[in-house]
Amino acid sequence: MSEVVKSYYDENAGQEWERLNRPYSGIEFRSTKHLIQKYFPEKGRVCDIGSGPGRYAVELLKQGYNVTLFELSPKELELAAAHIDRLGLKAGGFICGDARELRGMENGHFEAALVLGPLYHILEEQERLRVIQEAYRVLKPGGIVLFGYINSWGALKAGVTEFSESFRELDKIYDYLTELKLDESRGFTECYFTVPPQALKEVQTGGFEILSYAGAEGFLAGTQTEIGRLYREDRVVYDNLLQAASETCEAPQFRDATEHLLVVARKPAGE
């Protein structure tokens, strides 16, 4: 992964910890936790690949999983270690490195894995496949993994309210109907956007069986402004919407048009 991406996360480590506390990002957080509870084994070793500052690692540790954090940004890994220590929790390990080569990870060691960030930032397909294949390598046969992608179709919907000025040229709208590769001048850093059929094909090419996929924001995708208002003005409605969106995040009528795509996959049991 590039130095541009590493530098971005080094400089924004604290912001990444706080991001999932925001009213709209809270939908993504809750949906992801819903899928973890539904598909992960009840106990075991989990590899959090692209762990960031450790928000999901903390949740998993609280539930009794043995979690190893693997992260590109040393600043984010330091922040994760500090939060885990402050909470009196103990991780299985902290490893700083590139997700395309999981150094220090044994073959077939983990019952489950998260890969929620790395695939957002790798522009070339063969390099993304290396990440997927490395996750495959470190999982036990039958192991479960949750892959995260940024979804172009959902980004288009969100863009109507979040960055509509970029649509002054008609072609820019149609760009979001397929994959997008953005450098740091066009994205928040180097970014890769894809669409659900392509993401599913990529995960299968890496050797995995697809169990399900979900749209993290569910039916609330593209409603950031209104969700923020409800969070401030009517917390009961906000909480109800959050619960319903997370519990229905796999529904076909919602999942293809959300900003964050979550693919649930399994390493075949016989391998």
Written description of the protein model:
- The structure is a single chain.
- The protein is α/β, with parallel strands linked by helices and 271 residues long.
- It has one domain (3-266): Rossmann fold (3-Layer(aba) Sandwich), CATH 3.40.50.150.
- It is built from twelve helices and nine strands.
- Strands 1, 2, 3, 4, 5, 6, 7, 8 and 9 form a nine-stranded mixed β-sheet that branches.
- The longest helix is centred in the N-terminal third of the chain and has 15 residues, at 25-39.
- It is globular, with a radius of gyration of 18 Å.
- The chain starts with a helix and ends in a 5-residue tail after the last strand.
- The model has no long low-confidence stretch (mean pLDDT 95).
What is the fold's blueprint, element by element?
Blueprint: H1 3-11, H2 13-19, H3 25-39, E1 45-49, H4 55-62, E2 66-71, H5 74-86, E3 93-96, E4 110-115, H6 125-138, E5 139-151, H7 152-162, H8 170-174, E6 180-182, E7 191-194, H9 196-205, E8 209-215, H10 224-233, H11 235-247, H12 252-255, E9 260-266
Parallel strand pairs: 1-2, 1-4, 2-3, 4-5, 5-7
Antiparallel strand pairs: 5-9, 6-7, 8-9
Helix pairs in contact: 3-11, 10-11
Give short descriptive properties of this protein.
20% strand; Rossmann fold; nine-stranded mixed sheet; 271 residues; 12 helices; alpha/beta; globular
- State the end-to-end distance: 28 Å
Kindly report the name of the CATH homologous superfamily: Vaccinia Virus protein VP39
Q: What is the CATH C-level name?
A: Alpha Beta
Going by CATH, the architecture would be 3-Layer(aba) Sandwich
Summarize model confidence as the mean pLDDT: 95
Q: How many structural domains can be distinguished in the coordinates?
A: 1
The beta-strand count equals 9
